[in-house]
Amino acid sequence: MTDLKDLLVMRRILLAIILAAGVMYVILHCNLWRTNGYWLPSTDTERKGQLIACALKANVSAFLKVNTLYPFLCLNNFLDVSELHGSHRIELPYGIKKAEKYFQLALSRLQSCGLFREVDSSSSCKKCVVVGNGGVLRNKSLGETIDSYDVVIRMNNGPVVGYEEDVGRRTTFRLFYPESVFSDPIHYDPNTTAVLVVFKPHDLKWLWDLLSGQRLIRTNAFWKKPALQMIYKSSQIRILDPAITRRTAYDWLHLPSKFSKLEKPKHPTTGLIAIAFAFNICSDVHLAGFKYNFSDRNSSLHYYGNDTMSLMIQNGYHDIAAEQKFLKELMDRNIVVNLTEE
Fold first, then answer.
1. Is the pTM of this model over 0.70?
2. Quick check: helix, strand or coil at residue 281?
């Protein structure tokens, strides 16, 4: 009888150990997914399965300090995601602190926070090209090559219409801010996802106003007049997670987090943010149009228009020399391929 009781006790102890081990496995498994950047709250059904399945090479991840983040904020969990990334402790431009209500308003006007359209999601290993606006693209006839990539990422108001031979026709993603987005419908592309890079609360209010049909009255909060109409449909617009911009500024460029009142705060260019964005959705990243000629102030700044390099040299809000040095290191380490390297 005693042996039977001992056997029952041993079974109970063994069962308790198995249950405890199961609980520990679940906890450790969840923590692992949280820390590697792929964890998403369970309510977020739209984002699951859209992150790249092809891991970046070890040397790329180590150098870029990349833990893949889902790039866009979603209304139903942006507060949870921001807390996970530490953005809830940081004010704009690289966090959401004190601007939560503006993010909520802007996100409430968007119809989706999905990454790729269903027809584009057949392959999870994307080969991407980030097309800068540099004058080096002129007369290179790279349009067909650029269009051959799975994903084409552009930024600001770099036009395609009229420049197809040099820059291609396709645009998968276009990063912008209110002062740099197209306002002329001639540039509308139904296949483009337009990605807002937020720098100030007014950027979010501007988006909410335009998508709500409100007339934009105050424009003095912008460094130049923003677009007064939105040519993209709300279903095409996304908001970039500030954590990606923050990584670009601090981990890549090592910009200071605080500036004196006498200094102009420096931020990454939209081009470098676009490259950081690319590494979160692409398994292979190539570049075009990111080379500038600093020795000639009169050389073309962009592949379009008449602006010269003198305008870029005078810009106090970007550290162009630091960005060019960083991009050179990316190329020297074979992390990216530059199609317009000369």
1. yes
2. helix
